[in-house]
UniProtKB/TrEMBL annotation:
This is RfaE bifunctional protein kinase chain/domain. CDD domains: RfaE_like. PANTHER family: BIFUNCTIONAL PROTEIN HLDE (PTHR46969). Keywords: Kinase, Transferase. Residues 15-321 form the Carbohydrate kinase PfkB domain. One of its GO terms (molecular function) is heptose-1-phosphate adenylyltransferase activity. GO terms for cellular component: cytosol. Pfam families: PfkB (PF00294). InterPro entries: Carboh/pur_kinase_PfkB_CS, PfkB_dom, RfaE_dom_I, Ribokinase-like.
Length: 334
Protein backbone atom coordinates (compact mmCIF):
# COMPACT_ATOMS: atom_id res chain seq x y z
CA UNK A 1 0.00 0.00 0.00
CA UNK A 2 2.99 2.32 0.55
CA UNK A 3 3.47 3.25 -3.12
CA UNK A 4 -0.25 3.66 -3.66
CA UNK A 5 -0.56 6.09 -0.75
CA UNK A 6 2.49 8.08 -1.86
CA UNK A 7 1.00 8.43 -5.34
CA UNK A 8 -2.26 9.67 -3.86
CA UNK A 9 -0.42 12.37 -1.88
CA UNK A 10 1.04 13.61 -5.18
CA UNK A 11 -2.36 13.55 -6.90
CA UNK A 12 -3.93 15.47 -3.99
CA UNK A 13 -1.97 18.60 -4.88
CA UNK A 14 -4.01 21.50 -6.31
CA UNK A 15 -7.33 19.67 -6.08
CA UNK A 16 -10.09 22.27 -5.84
CA UNK A 17 -12.07 21.94 -2.62
CA UNK A 18 -14.99 24.13 -1.56
CA UNK A 19 -15.18 24.32 2.21
CA UNK A 20 -18.40 25.65 3.72
CA UNK A 21 -18.73 26.26 7.44
CA UNK A 22 -18.45 28.26 10.63
CA UNK A 23 -15.37 30.44 10.25
CA UNK A 24 -13.95 31.11 13.72
CA UNK A 25 -11.10 33.37 14.79
CA UNK A 26 -9.11 31.97 17.70
CA UNK A 27 -7.50 34.99 19.36
CA UNK A 28 -4.66 34.58 21.84
CA UNK A 29 -3.94 37.54 24.11
CA UNK A 30 -0.53 36.98 25.69
CA UNK A 31 0.48 38.61 28.96
CA UNK A 32 3.36 38.50 31.41
CA UNK A 33 2.27 38.14 35.04
CA UNK A 34 3.01 41.41 36.82
CA UNK A 35 1.29 41.27 40.22
CA UNK A 36 -2.05 40.72 41.98
CA UNK A 37 -4.54 43.54 41.49
CA UNK A 38 -5.57 45.67 44.50
CA UNK A 39 -9.05 46.02 42.97
CA UNK A 40 -9.86 42.30 43.05
CA UNK A 41 -8.03 39.01 43.68
CA UNK A 42 -6.98 38.67 40.03
CA UNK A 43 -3.71 38.70 38.11
CA UNK A 44 -2.50 41.83 36.38
CA UNK A 45 -0.90 40.93 33.06
CA UNK A 46 1.39 43.12 31.04
CA UNK A 47 0.28 42.71 27.43
CA UNK A 48 3.02 41.17 25.27
CA UNK A 49 1.32 39.90 22.09
CA UNK A 50 -1.95 39.23 20.28
CA UNK A 51 -2.28 36.48 17.68
CA UNK A 52 -5.20 35.37 15.51
CA UNK A 53 -5.30 31.71 14.47
CA UNK A 54 -7.88 30.11 12.11
CA UNK A 55 -10.37 28.09 14.15
CA UNK A 56 -13.50 26.02 13.49
CA UNK A 57 -14.12 25.62 9.77
CA UNK A 58 -11.29 28.10 9.14
CA UNK A 59 -8.91 25.54 10.68
CA UNK A 60 -10.26 22.92 8.27
CA UNK A 61 -9.62 25.42 5.46
CA UNK A 62 -6.07 25.97 6.73
CA UNK A 63 -5.42 22.22 6.96
CA UNK A 64 -6.73 21.54 3.46
CA UNK A 65 -4.63 24.35 1.99
CA UNK A 66 -1.47 23.22 3.83
CA UNK A 67 -1.93 19.68 2.52
CA UNK A 68 -1.87 21.08 -1.01
CA UNK A 69 -5.51 21.70 -1.86
CA UNK A 70 -6.77 24.80 -3.67
CA UNK A 71 -9.45 25.85 -1.20
CA UNK A 72 -12.51 27.99 -1.87
CA UNK A 73 -13.75 29.04 1.58
CA UNK A 74 -17.41 29.87 2.14
CA UNK A 75 -18.73 31.37 5.37
CA UNK A 76 -19.88 34.44 7.27
CA UNK A 77 -17.57 37.12 8.67
CA UNK A 78 -18.29 40.36 10.47
CA UNK A 79 -16.98 43.79 9.58
CA UNK A 80 -14.28 43.61 12.25
CA UNK A 81 -10.61 42.98 12.94
CA UNK A 82 -11.09 39.23 13.46
CA UNK A 83 -12.80 38.84 10.10
CA UNK A 84 -10.14 40.90 8.37
CA UNK A 85 -7.37 38.85 9.97
CA UNK A 86 -8.98 35.53 9.01
CA UNK A 87 -9.32 36.74 5.44
CA UNK A 88 -5.71 37.95 5.39
CA UNK A 89 -4.22 34.83 6.98
CA UNK A 90 -6.10 32.38 4.78
CA UNK A 91 -5.50 34.50 1.70
CA UNK A 92 -1.76 34.36 2.41
CA UNK A 93 -2.05 30.53 2.22
CA UNK A 94 -3.55 30.73 -1.27
CA UNK A 95 -7.15 30.29 -0.12
CA UNK A 96 -9.84 31.91 -2.26
CA UNK A 97 -11.93 33.95 0.20
CA UNK A 98 -14.42 35.46 -2.27
CA UNK A 99 -17.00 33.21 -0.59
CA UNK A 100 -16.65 35.03 2.73
CA UNK A 101 -20.00 36.81 2.97
CA UNK A 102 -19.79 39.97 5.11
CA UNK A 103 -22.64 40.44 7.59
CA UNK A 104 -22.66 43.81 9.32
CA UNK A 105 -25.31 42.61 11.78
CA UNK A 106 -22.97 40.17 13.55
CA UNK A 107 -19.35 39.85 14.61
CA UNK A 108 -17.01 37.23 13.25
CA UNK A 109 -17.24 34.26 15.63
CA UNK A 110 -14.31 34.88 17.96
CA UNK A 111 -12.89 32.84 20.83
CA UNK A 112 -10.42 34.97 22.78
CA UNK A 113 -8.07 33.19 25.15
CA UNK A 114 -6.13 35.21 27.69
CA UNK A 115 -2.80 33.47 28.24
CA UNK A 116 -0.63 34.24 31.26
CA UNK A 117 2.99 33.35 31.80
CA UNK A 118 6.28 34.54 33.17
CA UNK A 119 9.93 33.63 33.52
CA UNK A 120 9.29 31.25 36.41
CA UNK A 121 5.75 30.17 35.54
CA UNK A 122 4.18 27.90 32.94
CA UNK A 123 2.12 29.64 30.25
CA UNK A 124 -1.55 28.84 30.80
CA UNK A 125 -5.02 29.94 29.82
CA UNK A 126 -6.65 32.24 32.39
CA UNK A 127 -10.04 32.80 30.76
CA UNK A 128 -11.80 32.40 27.41
CA UNK A 129 -14.24 34.96 26.03
CA UNK A 130 -16.58 33.89 23.21
CA UNK A 131 -18.18 36.40 20.89
CA UNK A 132 -20.98 35.20 18.62
CA UNK A 133 -24.39 36.34 17.42
CA UNK A 134 -26.62 33.25 17.35
CA UNK A 135 -29.52 34.93 15.55
CA UNK A 136 -30.53 33.24 12.29
CA UNK A 137 -29.00 34.48 9.05
CA UNK A 138 -31.08 36.95 7.10
CA UNK A 139 -32.65 35.51 3.90
CA UNK A 140 -30.47 37.87 1.86
CA UNK A 141 -27.18 36.71 3.42
CA UNK A 142 -28.23 33.07 3.16
CA UNK A 143 -29.10 33.48 -0.52
CA UNK A 144 -25.77 35.16 -1.27
CA UNK A 145 -24.02 32.13 0.14
CA UNK A 146 -26.19 29.68 -1.79
CA UNK A 147 -25.71 31.57 -5.05
CA UNK A 148 -21.92 31.42 -4.63
CA UNK A 149 -22.01 27.72 -3.74
CA UNK A 150 -24.17 26.75 -6.71
CA UNK A 151 -22.13 28.86 -9.12
CA UNK A 152 -18.73 27.44 -8.05
CA UNK A 153 -19.45 23.75 -7.31
CA UNK A 154 -19.24 22.69 -10.99
CA UNK A 155 -15.59 23.81 -10.93
CA UNK A 156 -14.72 21.91 -7.73
CA UNK A 157 -13.21 18.47 -7.24
CA UNK A 158 -14.87 18.03 -3.82
CA UNK A 159 -16.90 19.81 -1.13
CA UNK A 160 -16.56 19.93 2.67
CA UNK A 161 -19.31 20.97 5.10
CA UNK A 162 -17.69 21.89 8.43
CA UNK A 163 -20.48 22.51 10.92
CA UNK A 164 -19.32 23.65 14.35
CA UNK A 165 -22.81 24.42 15.61
CA UNK A 166 -22.91 28.04 14.44
CA UNK A 167 -25.53 29.59 12.19
CA UNK A 168 -23.65 29.30 8.88
CA UNK A 169 -24.67 25.86 7.62
CA UNK A 170 -28.44 26.22 7.68
CA UNK A 171 -30.77 23.49 6.50
CA UNK A 172 -31.29 25.43 3.28
CA UNK A 173 -27.56 25.87 2.71
CA UNK A 174 -26.63 22.25 3.37
CA UNK A 175 -29.46 20.97 1.18
CA UNK A 176 -28.45 23.27 -1.68
CA UNK A 177 -24.80 22.17 -1.39
CA UNK A 178 -25.57 18.44 -1.27
CA UNK A 179 -28.02 18.69 -4.18
CA UNK A 180 -25.45 20.61 -6.25
CA UNK A 181 -22.84 17.95 -5.49
CA UNK A 182 -25.19 15.22 -6.69
CA UNK A 183 -26.11 17.21 -9.79
CA UNK A 184 -22.48 17.68 -10.81
CA UNK A 185 -21.05 14.38 -9.52
CA UNK A 186 -18.81 15.88 -6.79
CA UNK A 187 -17.85 13.95 -3.65
CA UNK A 188 -18.74 15.66 -0.35
CA UNK A 189 -17.91 15.16 3.31
CA UNK A 190 -19.52 16.46 6.49
CA UNK A 191 -18.03 17.01 9.92
CA UNK A 192 -20.89 18.20 12.13
CA UNK A 193 -20.67 18.63 15.88
CA UNK A 194 -24.38 18.53 16.71
CA UNK A 195 -26.64 17.76 13.73
CA UNK A 196 -24.99 15.23 11.45
CA UNK A 197 -28.28 13.40 10.87
CA UNK A 198 -29.51 16.42 8.88
CA UNK A 199 -26.99 15.69 6.11
CA UNK A 200 -28.89 13.07 4.15
CA UNK A 201 -27.32 12.33 0.79
CA UNK A 202 -23.77 13.35 1.76
CA UNK A 203 -21.00 11.14 0.32
CA UNK A 204 -18.80 10.84 3.40
CA UNK A 205 -19.33 11.39 7.11
CA UNK A 206 -16.65 12.06 9.71
CA UNK A 207 -17.57 11.93 13.42
CA UNK A 208 -15.67 11.42 16.64
CA UNK A 209 -16.95 8.86 19.14
CA UNK A 210 -18.95 11.27 21.30
CA UNK A 211 -20.58 12.91 18.27
CA UNK A 212 -21.50 9.54 16.78
CA UNK A 213 -22.94 8.42 20.11
CA UNK A 214 -25.09 11.54 20.37
CA UNK A 215 -26.25 11.11 16.77
CA UNK A 216 -27.80 7.74 17.64
CA UNK A 217 -29.08 8.78 21.08
CA UNK A 218 -26.37 7.25 23.27
CA UNK A 219 -24.06 8.76 25.90
CA UNK A 220 -21.02 6.71 24.86
CA UNK A 221 -20.04 3.82 22.61
CA UNK A 222 -18.62 0.40 23.42
CA UNK A 223 -17.34 -2.05 20.81
CA UNK A 224 -20.77 -3.27 19.76
CA UNK A 225 -22.60 0.06 19.90
CA UNK A 226 -19.79 1.64 17.83
CA UNK A 227 -20.49 -0.86 15.08
CA UNK A 228 -24.23 -0.29 15.37
CA UNK A 229 -23.82 3.50 15.34
CA UNK A 230 -21.58 3.51 12.28
CA UNK A 231 -23.95 1.29 10.32
CA UNK A 232 -26.99 3.30 11.44
CA UNK A 233 -25.49 6.66 10.41
CA UNK A 234 -24.38 5.17 7.10
CA UNK A 235 -27.85 3.81 6.35
CA UNK A 236 -29.90 6.78 7.58
CA UNK A 237 -27.83 9.34 5.66
CA UNK A 238 -27.57 7.12 2.56
CA UNK A 239 -23.84 7.85 2.56
CA UNK A 240 -21.05 5.99 0.82
CA UNK A 241 -18.84 5.82 3.92
CA UNK A 242 -18.69 6.85 7.58
CA UNK A 243 -15.42 7.41 9.45
CA UNK A 244 -15.58 7.43 13.26
CA UNK A 245 -12.42 8.64 14.99
CA UNK A 246 -11.64 7.08 18.37
CA UNK A 247 -8.70 9.07 19.75
CA UNK A 248 -5.93 6.73 20.94
CA UNK A 249 -7.92 3.75 19.64
CA UNK A 250 -7.58 4.87 16.02
CA UNK A 251 -10.57 5.10 13.70
CA UNK A 252 -13.16 2.83 12.12
CA UNK A 253 -14.40 3.07 8.53
CA UNK A 254 -17.86 1.86 7.54
CA UNK A 255 -18.54 1.49 3.82
CA UNK A 256 -21.80 1.13 1.93
CA UNK A 257 -20.59 -2.25 0.66
CA UNK A 258 -20.84 -3.54 4.23
CA UNK A 259 -17.09 -3.57 4.80
CA UNK A 260 -15.91 -2.35 8.22
CA UNK A 261 -12.21 -1.52 8.63
CA UNK A 262 -10.46 -0.57 11.87
CA UNK A 263 -7.36 1.59 11.44
CA UNK A 264 -5.08 1.76 14.52
CA UNK A 265 -3.08 4.88 15.38
CA UNK A 266 0.43 4.92 13.94
CA UNK A 267 2.27 5.88 17.15
CA UNK A 268 0.20 6.56 20.26
CA UNK A 269 3.28 7.11 22.41
CA UNK A 270 4.05 10.40 20.69
CA UNK A 271 0.62 12.05 21.08
CA UNK A 272 1.06 15.63 22.27
CA UNK A 273 -2.10 17.64 21.54
CA UNK A 274 -5.29 16.46 19.79
CA UNK A 275 -6.64 20.00 19.26
CA UNK A 276 -7.91 20.38 15.69
CA UNK A 277 -6.91 16.86 14.63
CA UNK A 278 -10.43 16.19 13.38
CA UNK A 279 -10.07 18.98 10.82
CA UNK A 280 -6.86 17.36 9.60
CA UNK A 281 -8.69 14.05 9.17
CA UNK A 282 -11.41 15.73 7.10
CA UNK A 283 -8.88 17.61 4.95
CA UNK A 284 -6.77 14.54 4.17
CA UNK A 285 -9.80 12.31 3.61
CA UNK A 286 -11.54 14.56 1.09
CA UNK A 287 -8.34 15.47 -0.79
CA UNK A 288 -7.49 11.78 -1.13
CA UNK A 289 -10.98 10.93 -2.40
CA UNK A 290 -10.80 13.86 -4.84
CA UNK A 291 -7.50 12.38 -6.04
CA UNK A 292 -9.20 9.05 -6.81
CA UNK A 293 -8.35 7.09 -3.67
CA UNK A 294 -10.54 4.28 -2.42
CA UNK A 295 -12.22 5.10 0.90
CA UNK A 296 -9.92 2.81 2.88
CA UNK A 297 -6.83 4.39 1.31
CA UNK A 298 -8.21 7.86 2.07
CA UNK A 299 -8.90 6.88 5.68
CA UNK A 300 -5.37 5.49 6.07
CA UNK A 301 -3.89 8.77 4.81
CA UNK A 302 -6.19 10.71 7.14
CA UNK A 303 -4.92 8.58 10.01
CA UNK A 304 -1.29 9.33 9.11
CA UNK A 305 -2.05 13.06 8.79
CA UNK A 306 -3.74 13.11 12.20
CA UNK A 307 -0.72 11.33 13.66
CA UNK A 308 1.44 14.23 12.47
CA UNK A 309 -0.63 17.06 13.96
CA UNK A 310 -1.20 15.47 17.37
CA UNK A 311 2.55 15.61 17.90
CA UNK A 312 2.43 19.40 17.60
CA UNK A 313 1.01 21.87 20.15
CA UNK A 314 -2.24 23.71 19.43
CA UNK A 315 -4.23 23.69 16.22
CA UNK A 316 -1.52 22.41 13.87
CA UNK A 317 -1.38 21.37 10.23
CA UNK A 318 0.45 18.74 8.18
CA UNK A 319 2.35 19.30 4.94
CA UNK A 320 2.60 16.96 1.91
CA UNK A 321 6.28 16.36 2.71
CA UNK A 322 5.48 15.40 6.30
CA UNK A 323 2.75 13.08 5.06
CA UNK A 324 5.06 11.42 2.53
CA UNK A 325 7.79 11.03 5.15
CA UNK A 326 5.52 9.43 7.75
CA UNK A 327 3.93 7.08 5.21
CA UNK A 328 7.34 6.03 3.89
CA UNK A 329 8.79 5.64 7.37
CA UNK A 330 5.87 3.58 8.61
CA UNK A 331 6.13 0.94 5.91
CA UNK A 332 9.93 0.83 5.99
CA UNK A 333 9.83 0.14 9.73
CA UNK A 334 7.50 -2.83 9.36
Amino acid sequence: MRESLLQIVTKMQDKKVMLIGDMIADVYLEGRISRISREAPVLILEHTAENVVPGGAANAVHNTATLGGKVYAVGIVGNDFSGQELTRILGSKGVVTAGFIPDDSRPTITKTRVMAGGQATVRQQVVRIDRENKAELSPEIEQQMIDYIQRLIPQMDAVVLSDYGGVTVTQTVLKAAIEACHRHGKPSIVDSRYKVMAYKGITLVKQNESEAAAAVGLKELDTQSLLDAGKSILSDLQAEAVLITQGPDGMTLFEKTGKVTHIPVTNVSEVYDVTGAGDTVVAAMILAVAAGAAYEEAACLANFAAGIVVRKPGTATATPKELRDVVGGHYEAR
